[in-house]
Each structure stands twice: as structure tokens, then as C-alpha cells.
Design a protein that fits this description.
single chain; 406 residues; alpha/beta; 2 domains; five-stranded mixed beta sheet; two-stranded antiparallel sheet; 17 helices; 7 strands; 52% helix
Length: 406
């Protein structure tokens, strides 16, 4: 007799990568996949039961369950001589925990390719053909394209942009280096939003950043109080060319990382302390004064770095023009960079690279759509608490434009 996997083995295999599992909007697909998956697990549990007791199969009966708003009609396996009931289902409730839908999502996110997804489903005896799996993938891919090209609001409090290096297999089967640029924004109500991603093959270039900004502009973005990016050469002038009245903040985290490699240990420690002091300053002018003192201290031993700091001093300290409570949220590109860290976990789980550009976009969509429809549904508390101040800053920044428009 073949050594069959236990129910625990089946479930653990699916749930191994639960940290990467996220929700997505495709309820009909979830309904079909989840019904089949739960039915397969229940059949396997009955087989395990029959291996241990003197009993026989006695067909199935239908029972309605639901996960949130998703209805399921499951085939509950029966046995002839016992009161067997699958342990995977709640016995006295017809509402299943949200965790069950993650069974399906785990398969989608943990599969390295279409073929590996097909293998994973076939191992669980799920009746899906290559064509059906490709149709599911194509549906999710089209939903990402729609999300990535949708019309955007004209006004934003903050837009963060970050670039991430990835390896993606192209149509020729070659694994190529690519740069993914992602923009996320805080809207006028304080909610976080995914605005778009642009994939550029090769090294990071100013042209790739330009394409990203053009895309946002063409999709409706007109007025942005604050842009937050890293210090890629030419990025500040580029932003000004598209959004001349906007403020721009260069990422403090990137600055500190850069300083660690360029300054001696003691000087670097002092530099971090000064940056922290500047961030707590009463206002922008006081922050500039504190920061200028540090530039003078490092000028002798690191003239080039001091000159660079002097040139970008105001861009590094723009965040001090804002209320202290939100400075930590706008002084770096962490809002977009953290998204890319999650994508990197998915990349590692995919074998170190994405099997195709389509697979990249499908997995990116599953993760992002979960955020948009769950934790990003409500305004961020720290921004919500200061909306009045932020709106006032917004009006002052663009009052000339408003007068001209009138």
C-alpha cells in the first residue's frame, strides 16, 4: 500500500507560506477553488478514519456554509457505522473562519509557476486542467492591469515612490534584471492607496522614473503636497518639472545608510544623533541650523559628502515643515519600500525570481488588493488626526494655482 499523506501533512503543506498569503477580489474563483479544496480534504479525512476503524463509506450529503459573503455548498462525506464528521468544519456553525480562504490563496502565492500550481492542485486531487488554471491567472492579471491603469484623484497629501531590483524571466526564457518602481499615496482623507507600478528592464534610470511620473500625471494626479523619494540623481528636478508647486522630501533612511559607508564610526554615530535632533526641531529653520553645524564638522574629512549634504539640505529637512506627530511617517520611503520587502518574500518563495512578468503581476495584485480592501480601508490615524493642518498646508501651497484657475 502506498504511503498516503495525512490530513495534517496536506494542510501544513498549504499553510507553510501563510505569511505571504493575502486576500484578493475574485469571489467566484475563490468559491470554486475553495469548495473543491475543502471537499478534497474531507474525503482524505474520511479515508484516514476508515483506515483506523471497521466502517465503510456511505456517500455524501450537501451542506451550506459561508465565508464572509461567499456562499459554499460542500459535499460532506458520511460513513455507514459511525457519526463521523470532518474535523476541518465547525460542527454547529455554518460560518467558516476567513482563514479557510487562505488555503486557496496559499496555493496561488506559493506556486512558482503555472505548472507548479497545476501540480499542487493535482496532488490534492482537485479537478483543474491547465486551461482552467491559465484562465484563473489571466483573470487576476487583467484585474491588476485595470488597477494599475485606473483613473486617480487629482489631489494627494503625500506620494511615496521607491525602486526595487528584481529578477524576472522574459518570453525567451532568460532571467533578466529589472527595476520595479512603485508609488503609494495618502489621499485627502488620510487613507493609504496603491497608485501604480512600472517595471523597467535593466538598471535604474531617470527615464524609468519619468515614465512613472508621466503615468501618474496622465491618470489624473495634478496636485501633491509632498513627494517622498530616495536621492536618485536628477529626481528632484524631474518631480519639479511635473509638479512645480509640490514639496519634495529625500529619504532620511537612505541618507543614514549612505553615511554609514562614508563616515568613520564615531562621526557616523554623531551624524545619526544630529539627524535625530534636526527631526525634533521646533521648525524648519531650526532644523537647518542644527544640520548645518553637522555639515561643518564633517567638511574637513569628507568634503564631497559635505558638499552633497549642503546641496540637498533643504530636501532632506522638508519633513520638519510638518507636524511633529507625522514626521516619522513622511521622512522616508518606507511606505513603498515595505511593500517591496513583502514582494521580495514572495520572490524568494518563487525560487529567487519570477517565472514571468505575468506571474509577477498576479502575485503583486493578490497582495496589494488585500491591503486595499482590508487594512487600507480606513484613514491612517496619525494623518486623520492632523487633516485640518494638512489641508491648510495644501491650500497655502496651491493657492496661487487656485486663484489663476478662478
Amino acid at each position: 500500500m502506498k504511503n498516503k499523506k495525512s490530513l495534517k501533512d496536506i494542510i501544513e503543506k498549504i499553510l507553510e507560506e501563510m505569511d505571504e498569503v493575502k486576500d484578493f477580489h475574485a469571489e467566484s474563483l475563490l468559491q470554486v477553488l475553495l469548495t473543491s479544496l475543502l471537499n478534497a480534504i474531507m474525503r482524505r479525512e474520511r479515508e484516514m478514519h476508515l483506515e483506523q476503524v471497521d466502517d465503510t463509506k456511505n456517500g455524501f450529503y450537501k451542506r451550506n456554509f459561508s465565508i464572509g459573503s461567499i456562499p459554499l455548498i460542500l459535499s460532506i462525506p458520511r460513513t455507514r457505522n459511525s457519526t463521523f464528521f470532518p474535523s476541518i468544519l465547525p460542527k454547529y456553525s455554518r460560518t467558516l473562519p476567513e482563514e479557510y480562504r487562505k488555503l486557496v490563496e496559499a496555493l496561488l502565492l506559493s506556486s512558482r509557476s503555472i505548472q507548479s500550481l497545476k501540480i499542487a492542485l493535482s496532488e490534492l486531487n482537485l479537478p483543474y486542467s491547465q486551461k482552467e488554471i491559465e484562465e484563473i491567472t489571466e483573470t487576476l492579471y487583467q484585474e491588476f492591469k485595470a488597477m494599475n491603469s485606473r483613473e486617480l484623484a487629482s489631489d494627494w497629501l503625500v506620494i511615496f515612490m521607491d525602486a526595487k531590483v528584481l529578477d524576472v524571466k522574459n518570453e525567451k526564457g532568460e532571467i533578466k534584471k529589472a527595476v520595479l518602481i512603485t508609488a503609494t499615496g495618502i489621499d485627502m482623507s488620510g487613507k493609504k492607496n496603491f497608485l501604480g507600478s512600472h517595471l523597467h528592464y535593466g538598471n535604474e534610470t531617470l527615464e524609468a522614473w519619468k515614465i512613472m511620473l508621466e503615468n501618474l500625471s496622465q491618470r489624473g494626479v495634478k496636485r501633491v503636497l509632498l513627494w517622498v523619494t530616495d536621492n536618485f540623481p536628477g529626481i528632484s528636478k524631474l518631480i519639479k518639472s511635473f509638479f512645480p508647486l509640490s514639496m519634495h522630501q529625500l529619504c532620511i533612511v537612505h541618507l543614514i545608510r549612505n553615511a554609514k559607508y562614508r563616515l568613520k564610526k564615531e562621526l557616523y554615530k554623531r551624524f545619526r544623533e544630529i539627524v535625530e535632533m534636526a527631526g525634533k526641531a521646533e521648525n524648519f529653520e531650526e532644523a537647518k541650523e542644527i544640520f548645518s553645524q553637522e555639515i561643518d564638522l564633517i567638511r574637513k574629512d569628507h568634503p564631497h559628502f559635505a558638499k552633497e549634504l549642503e546641496r540637498n539640505q533643504e530636501l532632506y529637512l522638508t519633513f520638519t515643515k510638518f507636524p511633529r506627530e507625522i514626521r516619522a511617517r513622511i521622512k522616508s520611503t518606507n511606505a513603498s519600500e515595505n511593500l517591496h520587502k513583502e514582494l521580495d518574500k514572495i520572490r524568494i518563495n518563487s525560487g529567487g525570481y519570477f517565472q514571468s512578468e505575468k506571474i509577477l503581476w498576479v502575485k503583486w495584485y493578490i497582495y496589494l488588493d488585500n491591503l486595499q480592501n482590508n487594512s487600507w480601508q480606513k484613514p491612517e490615524p496619525v494623518f486623520k488626526a492632523h487633516l485640518q493642518t494638512l489641508h491648510l498646508m495644501f491650500r497655502k501651497t496651491f493657492e496661487t494655482e487656485e486663484i489663476n484657475h478662478e
